[in-house]
Amino acid sequence: MANTFGQSNEFSRVVHSTHAKFFRKEEQNVLRKRRLTALLQEKGRITYNEDGDELKWPTRYKRTGLTPIGDVVDLSFIRKLKDKNSVLPWVGYAVEDAQGKKERLMNRGKSAILKQSSLIMERLKDDMKDGFALELYKDASTAGQEDRISGLETALGKGAALTAGKGFTPSDTYAGHSTAIGVVGTWTPPTGGSWPEGDGDAHYEWNSPIIVDPTGSGWQASTKTWPNTCVEALRYGIFAAERTTESLDMAMLTRESYNQFADKLDSRERIVTERSGSNSLLVKLGFGSVTNFENVDVTWEQGVDAEDGYAHGYGLAIDMMELCCLESQLFNPAPIDYSIENLTWRYLVEFWGQMKLNPRNLVKWVSD
Prior knowledge:
This protein is α+β, with helices and mostly antiparallel strands. It has helices at about 10-15, 35-40, 100-105, 120-135, 225-240, 255-265, 280-285; strands at about 45, 55-60, 85-90, 90-100, 160, 165-170, 175, 175-180, 185-190, 200, 210, 250-255, 290-295, 295-300, 310-315, 320-325, 330-335, 335-340, 345-355, 360-365. It is built from seven helices and 20 strands.
């Protein structure tokens, strides 16, 4: 039978004359690896000291169409609007703690196993860093979440199933603009197919992400579930994303979806590309569980499906994402404040900013 903490079965003379041994180093059982924030930092996609009443940026969404001409032709010279402004509000987050004067007086000197006054601020910064990583997946358009950062899910709502049976039409509003296809322009899909296959006007899909359904009817696998279709579905999303000038850097999956993908690869005859710091930024940053697939890092992160329980993961082009911060550092510790009213030292760490995305460079794998 296990001994109850704080009690001893030893000889009573030992109990009354010997202190318990306390280690003055804390076990850290709350640490987690956060890949997305590490990549944004490493690739210089975090900007500081931003300003203005809103986060606003112009996006070119349209091209000028060609006009066939002969020897003599009348051309129509009119001004053409090719830009739209996207707008997001600035948002903030805070983590806070307090220490009463009595607590500080008791928790000092040699009796303190852990001196809380020297730990509180660093712990708050660590808590902010860990919790903030999950916010980057949030949907700020959901009722009750308007004060949150406009994370990935803000731009990744899905509509009706596509006729090709491999995905959904995008259906959301991001930074003031619809992500739906065909708001303007035309598209010609191949016979029996549907967008994004085929070709058409650039503005037909100017703000539209790729939404892949691994349970759709269009896959070769006889059983249409992620463990069976994951290789097909990942390849389809990766190739579809190459319609833009920026290819995907990585596919960030849930842990279970990554396990099933790895199991599927193990069951197939394949050539393994050794990942190292020279050909994988994630490996360079010290992350394991990275698989090269179609020249894209496939990996996983805890909490990827926290916002959408049907999501298997996201395809990301990091250079088309930007974390914009209003202050000179990402997480700003406020000066420690002593309140004379309640004899308490108050601690605060803040974030003020917003995340800017280009929906056209996003892919989502999600089951119906």
